Amino acid sequence: MPAHGKGAHMSLKPVLDQIDSDLDAAMERLFDLLRIPSISTDPAFKGDVDRAADWLVSDLDSIGITATKRPTTGHPMVVGHVEGNGPHVLFYGHYDVQPVDPLELWDRDPFDPAIEETPKGRVIRARGASDDKGQLMTFVEACRAWKAVHGEMPCRITFFFEGEEESGSPSLIPFLKENADELKADIALICDTGLFESRAPAIMTQLRGLLGEEIVLTGPSKDLHSGMYGGAAMNPIRVMSRVLANLHDDTGRIQVPHFYDGVPDLPPEIKAQWDGLGFDYAGFLGDVGLSKPAGEQDHTALEMIWSRPTAEINGIKGGYTGDGFKTVLPSKVSAKVSFRLVGQQDPHALREHFREWVKTQLPEDVTAEFHAHGASPASQMSTDHPAFEQTRAVLGEEWGEEAAFTGCGGSIPVAGYFKTYLGLDTMLVGWGKDDDQIHSPNEKYDVESFHKGIRSWARILDAIR
Ligand code: BES
Ligand code: ZN
To answer: Which positions fall inside the Peptidase M20 dimerisation domain (predicted)?
Structure first.
């Protein structure tokens, strides 16, 4: 028997069988975690976030993994270790969830999970089912099955669960710096992404960065009657509307000076690879009631979401928005704007350029205040580690379709931080589907995603050990 690596005594097949026979129990465990409303952004749920961390500690403990809840100045981290032969992997997932509002758009209590039959199959309905508790538990359940069958883990694993991902990870960088030695491994694995077109396994090799800015414009010192003052007094909503309308030109190009500094052209070989994926352009927008890509018109929709930067207005607040009508001329208006970043775009430099650009558009008597909401650069994964090819080679068997290396429109800043602070490459794989409604009402995770996701992790662990 080899000193390390694949011993013939640890085969995959009985692990997959164990996963199949334990699926109902695995779902019960996930339901327990989903019942804890671990909303990290809302201080009212601080105790619940803490309880979710405790739950994970004891769940890891139940499969022989020594784990601890680690306090931070925000929500706790959970770190667990288990010995094993072969490569040392660091697995990351987040156990916090997004707020549930608007609650009235949910068809059930977001923290009372249930299995629902839908025309597309059985789904687990709850906040966090897909992002990211269900995904996190696919890895844990694969480890549980492996341990149950073989009495040990397929390789050495460090588990690292965060409770602040959905609120900008304020404690993450200090925690990585302070615990770098403990967290170092050969490669990081993150399960917080989705399948390609809800169907084919995807290893995401690039993530967009994210910059968040809130602008508050103030005109008159108080709300005014729009008949008494309208015409003479400058309305800050009028100014905000113009500023926001100026973000893009008619071709979808973003107008903030220096915005495109550091945006690379898509390398022809990547473009060719993406073109070869057979992306269903009509279906992608058609599924959400749209037909025409709204970004930079000289790029494909796939490029718009994977390799091009964006400016999006996420929310506007100001004036009278209640029922009925009120002729008010408001004192203040605010807007939240986020930018998805690619390549070498520098979020901190961009924040300054954006603020300058807004200020140059303000007429007399209107002043601006800005609030910063997160700034993380894009990251490009190196796929040199053998785990990438080993993983790609085995996922096809589970999903009936070859795995692809793809881009990703979302942002997972921790992947870049693993590189910067731990020197670790990250492999991003996940089983979410485009219609999981993450961050939205009626979030769900397909039972298929959960079941095949667990089986996929068993296959990956088997392939890389
Ligand atoms: N799981 C998502 C990232 C994601 C979204 C991956 C869609 C693949 C497809 C993650 O939890 C998330 O929502 N990230 C935020 C950024 C974070 C810094 C708040 C995002 O992308 O908006
Ligand atoms: Zn997530």
So the answer is: 207-365
